[in-house]
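Subject: Protein entry, chain in single-letter code together with its fold tokens

Category: Structural biology, sequence-to-fold work with a learned token vocabulary.

Notation: Tokens come from a learned vocabulary of local backbone shapes, not from coordinates.

Start of record: The labelled sequence and token lines come straight after this line.
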Amino acid sequence: SLMIVPGDHGEDLFEQGFLGHGHAINKRQYGTFLAINRPGMNMPGPIGLSDYRAIILSLMQGQRPSPVTRPVLMMVGDLDTPTQIGMAGEQGNITTLRLDTGTACLLESGACENIGRLQGRARARVNELLRLWGSARWNAASR
């Protein structure tokens, strides 16, 4: 028997003044667990719901699931008009962008800045986030 238990999203319990979920992208609200009853079959890095099928099929065939190497897109709101978008990368780094204010954050360092002032690696991460969101929107529109 194969048993997989996915975790639900988390809640803010008055951290940073909020109670509830769905209003911000952070590890408390988006970080969950995935328990599998196969020894040594933990998944490194972040995974999204779209990764579950490949993981389950691999486990049913007795194989180790391939690691997810692409970032996972997150958003507050719907795909076309979210208030915030985010991306979890391979090392668990989370990049967010509030579309109403233009504030971009690299959550592991706590650094937030207006998107227009970003340079170097921070700007590259936000550009990757925007590319990922744009690709998801294009894919949804072409269905």
Remarks:
- The chain is about 25% helix and 25% strand.
